[in-house]
């Protein structure tokens, strides 16, 4: 049946709230804006509009998906990150604001040669060559390519489906990026790369402990890709492999940057120190004052 938009939104908000959706007021409105292809700023002008039957049915179909726990970003197929728009689906992790801390600091390293407030040793001239390792949607690599104009970016992932999404996001954001598919550094061991080395390897590896996954929000544990979440028994499985292998693929003074879980700084820093190939270790906090980024530079 036809219905005023304000009434429709009230029903949606109530149903979402009863279904355990975290932000029912926001999500009910964003679903409507997606349905009608209007910006949120214009929503208030729609409140007294009487929506036709078929549009009400379409809206309730979207509402059913959200109430079932499908993340809003997967329903509308987009997520904002670093001021850019990214295509997302259940083949890739949804980019999160925490990861913007990692990208912000990588951009500062590339453009200003600083980590935090500390000046880094002078580097040779030429474009920065960056590897976004385990790229998922490509949000990190694409954002760096957008914000650091002379930078060469390569995105790689073990998931062919994720690489396909990252390719679409590069096209969507009009950047040229190289793509490789394979397990961590395996693609770069091929003869055609001739022992290629990067100025920076940046990664947001899976860091959730396996035993904690069943206790995550249903939107995460039931819909986001397990391969992008599961960091093994201690949450550090991929960090160990990357730290061990990265020196082979970094140039002199090359940089390794990670996003980390809120309680993983000490463990990651200890692994870097024990490895013996890294120096200038730094950790950086997010806006909530949790340790979020670890930076290291290859020894001279």
Summarize the structure.
The chain has 300 residues and is α/β, with parallel strands linked by helices. The protein is built from ten helices and 13 strands. The strands form four sheets. It has a seven-stranded mixed β-sheet, with helices on both faces. The protein has a two-stranded antiparallel ribbon with strand order 1-2. Strands 3-4 form a two-stranded antiparallel ribbon.
Tags for this entry?
elongated; 7-stranded mixed β-sheet; 300 residues; 13 strands; alpha/beta
Written account of the structure:
With 300 residues, the chain is an alpha/beta fold. It contains ten helices and 13 strands. The mean pLDDT is 93.
Mean pLDDT: 93
Strand content: 15-25%
Structural class: alpha/beta
- Give the helix tally: 10
Number of strands: 13
Shape: elongated
Q: Within the largest sheet, what's the order of strands? A: 9-8-7-10-11-13-12
The radius of gyration computed from the alpha-carbon positions, rounded to a whole number of angstroms, is 21 Å
What is the helix content? 25-40%
**Gap from first CA to last CA:** 71 Å
The major β-sheet equals:
7 strands, mixed
């Amino acid at each position: 049946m036809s219905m005023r938009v304000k009434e429709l939104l009230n029903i949606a908000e109530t149903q979402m709230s009863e279904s355990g959706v975290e932000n029912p007021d926001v999500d009910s409105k964003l679903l409507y804006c997606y349905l009608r292809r209007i910006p949120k700023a214009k929503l208030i002008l729609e409140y007294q509009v009487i929506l036709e039957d078929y549009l009400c049915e379409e809206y309730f179909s979207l509402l059913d998906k959200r109430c079932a726990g499908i993340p809003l970003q997967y329903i509308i197929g987009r997520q904002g990150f670093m001021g850019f728009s990214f295509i997302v689906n259940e083949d890739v992790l949804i980019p999160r604001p925490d990861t913007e801390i990692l990208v912000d600091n990588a951009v500062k390293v590339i453009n200003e040669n600083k980590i935090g407030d500390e000046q880094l040793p002078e580097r040779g001239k030429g474009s920065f060559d960056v590897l976004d390792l385990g790229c998922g949607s490509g949000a990190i690599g694409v954002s760096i390519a957008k914000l650091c104009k002379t930078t060469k970016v390569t995105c790689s992932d073990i998931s062919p489906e994720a690489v396909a999404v990252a390719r679409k996001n590069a096209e969507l954001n009009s950047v040229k990026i190289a793509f490789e598919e394979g397990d961590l550094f395996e693609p770069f061991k091929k003869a055609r790369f001739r022992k290629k080395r990067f100025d920076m390897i940046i990664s947001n590896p899976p860091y959730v402990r396996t035993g904690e996954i069943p206790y995550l929000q249903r939107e995460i544990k039931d819909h986001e890709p397990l391969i992008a979440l599961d960091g093994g028994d201690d949450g550090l499985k991929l960090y160990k492999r990357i730290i061990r292998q990265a020196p082979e693929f970094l140039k002199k003074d090359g940089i390794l940057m990670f996003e980390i879980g809120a309680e993983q700084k000490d463990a990651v820093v200890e692994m870097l120190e024990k490895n013996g190939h890294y120096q200038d270790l730094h950790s950086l906090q997010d806006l909530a004052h949790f340790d979020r980024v670890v930076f290291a530079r290859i020894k001279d």
